[in-house]
Amino acid sequence: MPRIPYLEMSEASPEYQEMLKGRHDLNLYRMLPHATTIAPGFLKMGGAILRESALDPQLREIAILRVGFLSKASYEVHQHKRVARNVGLSDAKIAALEHDPASAMFSALEKLIIRYTDEVVQNVKAPDALFNELLAQLDNRRMAELTLTIGFYMAVSRFLENFEVEIEPKPPTDKTVKYSAN
């Protein structure tokens, strides 16, 4: 049970209601409008990460799921397992992100993404050597987007866990939401 009640969409601002058109009906979207003036910016940033980022969608989902696992954010992990599968991540890789992040099934770049995510979540700043090794694989834009993605999903995870947002009883129907820049 959430720590505060969900809002009915009729109680949300018209701007917020408009922004939800075409999105899945999620409990997260019913908790966010409590942050009246922040919620629209939150949705815009999340939408940009999922639909406008230059970062490869599988790499993005590896980072997001790793943040969720490290944060023990069950709702976030639940939702992004679905997104990760939609962009082609295997169930084996998804499981390894939680239990065996050094697994040989991950490519060298994926392992760098995992290590970088772990450092940012746990220590805020990644060591220079790791940062530079990853930057050699990504360009400046993708490196910035990866770091912002990690930070955004840290905030999402903390919001979800502190308000005890519940996983919906039935999976959202596919509204053909595009989760990548491809």
Care to give the gist of this entry?
With 182 residues, the chain is mainly alpha-helical. Helix content is 60%, strand content 0%.
Task: Give the C-alpha Rg.
Answer: 16 Å
List low-pLDDT spans. 175-182
Oligomeric status of the shown chains?
Answer: single chain
Element order, helices and strands?
HHHHHHHHH
User: Beta-sheet strand percentage?
Assistant: under 5%
Mean pLDDT, rounded to whole units?
Answer: 92
Give the proportion of residues in helices.
Answer: 55-70%
General form: globular
**What fold name stands as the CATH topology of the domain at 55-161?**
AhpD-like
Distance between the termini: 38 Å
Describe the structure.
It is a single chain. The chain is mainly alpha-helical and 182 residues long. The protein has a domain at 55-161: Up-down Bundle (AhpD-like). It is built from nine helices and no strands. It has helices at 14-19, 27-31, 39-51, 57-71, 74-86, 91-99, 108-123, 128-135, 140-163. Helix 4 packs antiparallel against helix 5, helix 4 packs parallel to helix 9 (140-163) and helix 7 runs antiparallel to helix 8. The longest helix is centred in the last third of the chain and has 24 residues, at 140-163. The chain is globular. The protein starts with 13 loop residues before the first helix and ends in a 19-residue tail after the last helix. The relative contact order is 0.18.
Can you lay out the helices and strands and say which pair or pack?
Elements: H1 14-19, H2 27-31, H3 39-51, H4 57-71, H5 74-86, H6 91-99, H7 108-123, H8 128-135, H9 140-163
Helix pairs in contact: 4-5, 4-7, 4-9, 7-8
